[in-house]
Design brief:
- Helix content is 33%, strand content 31%.
- It has 230 residues and is α+β, with helices and mostly antiparallel strands.
- The chain has one domain.
- A hairpin with a 2-residue loop joins strand 6 and strand 7 (126-137).
- The radius of gyration is 18 Å and the shape is globular.
Length: 230
């Protein structure tokens, strides 16, 4: 009831302000392939790995939602592989950012959800709410870690996403966003998530401060308009 009341109150204010300024039009974002390095720490892009392409229907949905998608497989010195997927959207649609969440798009490819939970990770000085998934397709077991950034804020749920979008709207702003996902092939999901966390930390350390904000949210949330900063 509290969440519903907050959304209703923000909707009234948001209606009056009619957001019209797209954050994407005023942000020097850069291309994903340029600011995400192909090699960092113990990891190198595995150019020989075949990226599994989505079905034509799924690809059409992705093209409609996102402005840019980066998909790479990385390999470390121990032979462990991490599949990285980052999708960027500059608000192509109406009514806020559309996000193709893994717990929805994986089953569309034939996977089953065997379990999921939420956790907090501390990455480059930020506390990030992430979703952990256990996905399976036949004998393929794929633990997944992902999160969503709306504007400069990492959100943990669809409801929180809508709240943050509306709070940006009260400032006259239309936010862009990122979906950050890593996965690996591992029958032991706990082990898989540990390797994924190590990968994420090494990637974060290799990024510029601007790229860290893009993918991990703002370091100083008081400076974010949606949170009432200046």
């Amino acid at each position: 009831m509290l969440i519903a009341g907050s959304m209703a109150a923000i909707s009234v204010v948001g209606f009056a302000s009619r957001p019209s300024q797209r954050i994407a039009d005023h942000r020097r974002r850069g291309n994903l392939k340029d600011f995400v390095p192909r090699a960092f720490g113990h990891w190198r892009e595995d150019e020989l790995s075949n990226v599994i392409l989505p079905s034509p229907d799924a690809q059409a949905t992705i093209d409609k939602i996102y402005n840019e998608v980066l998909a790479r497989t990385y390999l470390d010195s121990k032979g462990r592989r991490i599949m990285l997927s980052i999708a960027y959207g500059g608000d192509k649609g109406e009514g806020g950012m559309s996000i193709h969440r893994p717990e929805v798009c994986y089953p569309a490819q034939g996977f089953r959800v065997e379990g999921q939970r939420s956790e907090l990770l501390t990455i480059v000085g930020r506390t990030i709410p992430v979703k952990r998934l256990r996905m399976a397709l036949g004998e393929r077991h794929e633990p997944v870690t992902y999160w969503i950034v709306i504007g400069d804020i990492v959100v943990a749920s669809g409801i929180e996403q809508k709240l943050i979008e509306m709070r940006y709207g009260t400032q006259g702003l239309i936010p862009d966003g990122y979906l950050f996902r890593v996965s690996s092939i591992d029958r032991d999901p706990e082990q898989g998530w540990l390797v994924q966390e190590s990968f994420i930390r090494e990637l974060a350390a290799a990024l510029t401060p601007a790229a860290q904000t893009n993918l991990f949210g703002a370091l100083d949330l008081q400076a974010v308009p949606a949170l009432g900063g200046t």
